[in-house]
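Dear Dr. L.,

I hope this message finds you well. Following up on our conversation about the binding site, I have prepared a predicted three-dimensional model of the protein together with nicotinamide-adenine-dinucleotide. For your records, I am including the exact sequence and ligand specification that went into the calculation, followed by the structure tokens. Please feel free to forward this to your student if that is useful.
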Amino acid sequence: MKALTWHGQHDIRCESVPDPTIEDGRDAIIKVTACAICGSDLHIYQGSIPEMESGDVIGHEAMGEVVEVGRDNKALKVGDRVVVPFTISCGECFFCQRGFYSGCERSNPDSAKVSKLWGNSPAGLFGYSHLLGGYRGGQAEYLRVPFADIGPIKVPDGLTDEQALFLSDIFPTGYMAAEFCNIQPGDTIAIWGCGPVGQMAIRSAFLLGAERVLAIDTVPERLALARAAGAFTLDYLEEDVYDRIMDLTRGRGADACIDAVGTEADPQASWDSRWDRIKVATFMGTDRPHVLRQAIHCCRNFGTVSIVGVYGGFLDKIPMGSAINRGLTFRMAQTPVQRYLPELMRRIENGDIDPSFVITHRASLEEGPALYETFREKKDGCIKVVLKP
Ligand SMILES: NC(=O)c1ccc[n+]([C@@H]2O[C@H](COP(=O)([O-])OP(=O)(O)OC[C@H]3O[C@@H](n4cnc5c(N)ncnc54)[C@H](O)[C@@H]3O)[C@@H](O)[C@H]2O)c1
Ligand SMILES: [Zn+2]
Ligand SMILES: [Zn+2]
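The resulting structure of the complex is given below.
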């Protein structure tokens, strides 16, 4: 089959790899009908994810048609149309039983390795290095889905691939980011990053009752899409984000702040962003947490900082003094996608939201490598790429 494979920094190729096969009775194989490129794939593209190996099949946002099921899998049958969560979860362990699917303690065969870095291991993820299971990803013609009797959700006939695909990751992630904020009537929610995840967070914050959303980015078409959802937008290169948020909130700060940027924050945003860039480039630091610092400062006393932008290691100069003295709550996670699927599928079916609004580019798998560059550079108005193998 054809698949997108990683060969080093900025080197993604579309090439032939062996077809996946059933390896466990609970597995299923799907023929991928649509898959997407995510901001999390950009960390791999940039070479910032350790333990990638040349030839690894990447991608973790995929859906398709079931073409084969393992003998113990009673939940799926050949011909079912399913969306696959990016988190691989057994459904039975201590964490899965509590709904913390992205903390599954059985799905990451590399858990000893990653525990050295993080103290313990989260769930395995599709297409996300040999720290997180080395599973082959979904930017491919076929995908082997482990624990497929727990993860994938069936798509009703009335929904198109494009409407359902983002249940695999960015819709649940944006929704979780907003849910973490425990939104009350009258609340102002500030959201850094108007990429695909930020866009889902903006709409989710309104769905959950936010009165006002302040959306921060600098890319004109991304800010325009945020305004189309009803957000008030701030351009971090044009104005001082902290001053503006204080002006808009009577000097208190936002009730909750969402970081939907993570470690690839724009080095041009401020002096500390530039400094982060130098530290990472010279191996003096692991991450570029400018947005997290700013989100903490812009959050009102006893407010919530919700983090869905991904960080990898040990973050420097986080203003914990501000956070403890002002009573902030921190919430963060790789999304336990399975937990959100039934509710969010219902919201799509009800017409509360059509997540396909975010798609700007549709292409074949062969065009994938070029579109990684287009997405990273935000060229050609690119916000979200969907590939149809
Ligand atoms: N927690 C999860 O489960 C989960 C799931 C999916 C994605 N993510 C993460 O969410 C983040 C966003 O993903 P995406 O697909 O939207 O990526 P993206 O790269 O398209 O979006 C990031 C946006 O942040 C903006 N930005 C950069 N610096 C900024 C700054 N200083 N202030 C405000 N905005 C700034 C960029 O212009 C861009 O529009 C990534 O870190 C990704 O890894 C997390
Ligand atoms: Zn993703
Ligand atoms: Zn589990």
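In brief: The radius of gyration is 20 Å.

With kind regards,
A. P.
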